[in-house]
Design a protein that fits this description.
disordered C terminus; globular; alpha/beta
Length: 293
């Protein structure tokens, strides 16, 4: 299990308070670490105001460190360069910005054009540790009822599943795996898929999490196959819609033409999204969700 140094909460907007700090505080409590709140100075909040806000939410002040910054992203990235252990980040985002970007992209966005929230892109492209993204204006489920992990060929989902198991153990929630297959694949015809799922799942866990204990593996509740490789089929799947959080492994490239499914997830889904960088070492050959990174 990873021992994170702290949970960093980024406060860049007035809506980045109530629910994000509750979730960040609960995560920190589960790991026995503190919350480090980085507040954008442009919000004009004084230290006493921040303390009153924490007290109003019944957040113990001894478990939280607050810091006002001129650039919360740069401060966060600087903290990630410290020696191990490393922090984990919680940040809110504006879904409409990704909806706008997707509509531009489908109309023919040129390579290298700017994203409406360049600071967020800078964070998720540069930060090496997991980042929990919470959609502004939406009450995410908490405690999470389950974690959903898409199984991907290019992204391999090895690191995502490892992190998902750790979260599932700490938060006592089940994990659902979702694998997308092309409609022409022989594995989804007739009864074959039912015979293939169990050995496929065992093979995946063996390769992706070779050091997971039997207790860890029991957190994986099921694996379902989606007879489509389209983003729409994945986004409509009940296990995705009903999850408390989606654990997504990706390559870290967010420019035009990359991470298209991830952008659609952020634009369309209300569930929390836990971004996990893919491992540099290929440990699984299972294929699905080719556009995640």
């Amino acid at each position: 299990m990873t021992q994170w140094s702290e949970v960093i909460l980024l406060v860049r907007h007035s809506q980045d308070f109530d629910q994000p700090i509750r979730i960040a505080s609960a995560m920190a409590s589960a790991w026995g670490i503190r919350v480090h709140v980085l507040v954008d100075q442009r919000l004009g909040l004084s230290d006493p105001q921040i303390e009153e806000w924490l007290k109003s939410l019944n957040i113990p002040l001894f478990s939280v460190r607050t810091e006002r910054c001129t650039d919360v992203i740069e401060t966060c990235l600087g903290m990630s360069k410290a020696p191990m252990p490393q922090p984990i980040v919680v940040s809110s985002y504006e879904a409409s910005l990704f909806q706008k970007e997707h509509s531009i992209a489908t109309a023919g966005e040129r390579e290298g054009s700017a994203h409406p929230d360049p600071d967020l892109v800078r964070l998720i492209e540069s930060f090496e540790n997991p980042i929990l993204l919470l959609r502004r204006g939406i009450e995410s489920q908490w405690p999470w009822p389950s974690l959903a992990v898409p199984m991907s060929g290019e992204s391999r989902c090895s690191q995502a599943l490892t992190v998902a198991i750790e979260f599932a153990q700490k938060l006592s929630v089940p994990i659902d795996l979702i694998r997308s297959l092309a409609p022409s694949s022989e594995a989804i015809h007739g009864d074959e898929v039912h015979h293939e799922l169990e050995p496929m799942l065992e093979e995946f866990i063996t390769h992706a999490c070779p050091f997971a204990s039997p207790t860890d593996r029991r957190r994986i509740r099921q694996m379902e196959v989606v007879a489509s490789e389209s983003a729409e089929a994945f986004l409509r799947h009940p296990l995705v819609r009903e999850a408390g959080a989606l654990v997504v492994e990706w390559k870290g490239v967010f420019t035009a033409g990359h991470a298209e499914i991830l952008k659609k997830i952020l634009a369309e889904l209300s569930v929390a999204v836990l971004l996990v960088r893919e491992s540099a070492v290929e440990v699984s050959s299972l294929r699905a969700g080719r556009q995640l990174g």
